[in-house]
Amino acid sequence: MAEKIYIPTGKNGSLAEYELRPDGTAALCRWPRADQCDIAAVHGQVQGHPVTEIAPLAFAPYHLPAARMAQLAEEAVISFSAFSMKHGRELEYEEQDAGGPVEIILPEGLAKIGEYAFWCCGRLARIRIPGSVKELPAGAFGKCAGLREVILEEGIEQIGLWPEGTREAMPETGVFYNCNSLKTLWLPDSVRSIGAETFNSSGIRCLSVCDAAAKQEPDGDGSADAVPCCRPSQAAASADPPVPSAGTDIPWHHTVRVHPTAFHHTADLQWMERCDPDGTVCVRIGLPMEKDTILRCDPNFGRLAVLPELFFSAGPEAADRLAKEAFRLDFSGRMAIARLSCPHGLTEEMERFYLELLVTYAGRAAYFMEADASGRTPLKRLTELACENRYLTREQTVRLILAAGEQQEYGLAQQILAVQNERFREDTGFEELEL
Known about the structure:
single chain; alpha/beta; Leucine-rich repeat, LRR (right-handed beta-alpha superhelix); 23% helix
């Protein structure tokens, strides 16, 4: 029988249970949930033995024997809920449960995290996964409803379970299953696989993916600006880095394998970004609302259902074609915002198309974009983006002024008029008489 080591964690005499392994390392087997502690710092060593593993269900409110957990992946249908019911007599519940810690600090050198390690940690808000961990297993953060910040360090290669053969994974196997508060996530360049149901029922809105090949070079005239990425672990290196010339594409320097179910039930996911290692966004795409209502067999819109998967294998031109060929305002409008704000690889034809789309549907801006933190209305944000575009025409400014008037944003109408007078001062049109 493996030797157990018990170390106090804080209040009430609670003890964390570690287990010594035959190779001289140690694993955290159970972290007590009786304390309503803010920070759970996992020891890097216990009695001179390095801690290299977080065992399955270590922070969960209940536990199954390790031998039973090992059988879970062999099931024809991998469902943790069904598996727990099947072996309910062997479940061991925490006698007192305060919901788990708010923050978990993992030691450097940690090599493995077990299945469902942080399952049902409802109070967990922040965690950093060191780069020494190569895989995030099934259900790692399942039902962590309060989780807001996950920092994945460079080194992790696989996220989630990839069922082999005829095995099928149920939603709760997803790494971020039911993480309602998780709005943004940065995937490091080392990621090579995103498994089944990874983001099922999560609240993620923006997924940023690092790609080393995306390192940008200055444009010829340095006129265009890239958009800083909101990576949680670091700020962008520069507020106004230049972007490459339009009409060119940078291929992915590696392949990311994405399971067909990885993005099931991700209704909140609106933006996907490809960033360089400095955190600068070089490609951004917008996604349609209510993606789960789009059938893959639909001849008109079926391709939109697989757009999150396509993002990892194709350049932005594929999404541009969809924005035009499978036009839906909730999707094409988001694509216009995404591509005009980050125009890498955008052809003149598509840039004009997106600009005209924004002008045409300016009055419905609230349908495909939102007000920002500074209080700018959707129409104001849309107008500012359109007015910065090099292909803007005088006639389009008139239509924007009309849209601002219809929305009773009269101050905005005056701003557009000022832009019109500045950019088209040599024109002598009479379009303003329509107002």
